[in-house]
Amino acid sequence: MSRTTAPAPADRKDGATAPAEGLTHGLKQRHLSMIALGGVIGAGLFVGSGAGIAAAGPSIVIAYAISGILVMLVMRMLGEMSAANPASGSFSVHAERALGPWAGFTAGWAFWFLLCVAVGLEGIGAAKIMTGWFPESPEWAWVALFMLVFCVTNLAAVKNFGEFEFWFAALKVGAIVLFLGIGVLAIVGVLPGTDAPGTTNLTGEGGFFPHGSEGLIVGLLASVFAYGGLETVTIAAAESEHPVQGVAKAVRTAMWRIALFYIGSMAVIVTLVPWGDEAVVEKGPYVATLDHLGIPAAGQIMNVVVLVALLSAMNANIYGASRMAGSLVSRGQGPKALGRTFGGVPRPAVLVSSVFGFACVLLSYWRPDDIFVWLLNTIGAIILVVWFFIAASQLVLRRRTEREAPEKLVVRMWAFPVLTWVALAGMAAIFVLMAREEGTRVQLYWTGGLTLLLAAVGFARQKMRRPVTEES
């Protein structure tokens, strides 16, 4: 085996691919389908999109459409590789096979770091909602409770994670579909107690581009990072009953999911509510829209939905982090103890990922002005780094697969290699835009520093292992 080729999963007689690293096929197709659906609906959509609307105004629809196209291209590339070779390490495994162990090491541990910090952030957000309902309770106690619940859930069989995510995702999907239905009724003027707004909010208050191209750029940057989380479905697919079919189905439905949930939501919000309404940022765009329509208890309804979204993200990120760590260790890219599996579950990786996430929460209390801010800045652009590795890997692996096993190309990237290069150019453009904006420049620098550090360590490990690998 060459040093640039990761071990391929063994094929089963039923046509599925056996999961590596001692994992099991514990996820059913309904689990995977709902994880794919719910993966695009996070707290960033329900709450974080308000800042993008305030910056871009109605043109936020265009911003989400542009970034949505980029995400669809990335998911298509990732789907092609994951359907051909399902693995719990997903893009890390693909990067190792295409570019070498250093690339798998860099992409994998960067993503693990991102997920662990995100677990802490989501725990803090969920705790703030709970303390709003129970003012006398401490935030840390709620975070500890959530961490304990999802740590235990992920320590058990993978089907428990699948069940939690199935119902979390079902609630999120139901909420967003109900919101869109109410919004469309209001736009056409058939919702009781409302009048059709027409294009008043789209063309008034400065027009469709109230802050010009600069506002659109800020909205674009905000929208890019709202799409994070789609990658989890390709990690989970390796533990599903039918990995190849599951990935293929999830990727093929990505286009309408993104168009409906993200772009559709933004279009409904800016059509119904003046983009300059302070409530869009303070309460969140969904709460502001429901309040504007006079829906009773809108704030509390959306708080429940946001809480579900945060808890779902915590659960999914602990799962994703543990599987990524387990995959890395199984390929000799980390401490061996972290990769041990018990009952088909990488329990040491689950524990370490959960503890790291809780440590981030403690840092938010102890060192909110320096270390915690550093953590936030460091993860700022990691998802773009991951997407870059996905695109670069697909360029290499597509041609290799066409030569060696063309029957594995169940999912194919559109207009290859043209659209792959278009996606890479789009990522490069976003990096440039981040460097131009003061608010994102620091994130770019810190993420770049972490990426270079991981790459240097990965290169060093690769050189140290080369003689042994070549002799074997």
UniProtKB/TrEMBL annotation:
Keyword Membrane set for record = yes
Question: Annotated region Disordered: where?
Answer: 1-20
Q: How does it sit in the membrane?
A: Multi-pass membrane protein
InterPro entries in alphabetical order? AA-permease/SLC12A_dom, Amino_acid_permease_CS
Domain of life from the UniProt record: Bacteria
- Which positions, given as ranges, span the membrane? 34-55, 61-78, 99-120, 140-158, 170-191, 216-238, 258-275, 295-314, 349-366, 372-397, 409-432, 444-460
- Could you tell me where this protein is found in the cell? Membrane
Entry keyword annotation includes Transmembrane helix = yes
Alphabetized, the UniProt keywords read: Amino-acid transport, Membrane, Transmembrane, Transmembrane helix, Transport
Domain Amino acid permease/ SLC12A intervals: 31-441
Question: Where does the UniProt annotation place the signal sequence?
Answer: none
Q: What is this protein called?
A: Amino acid permease
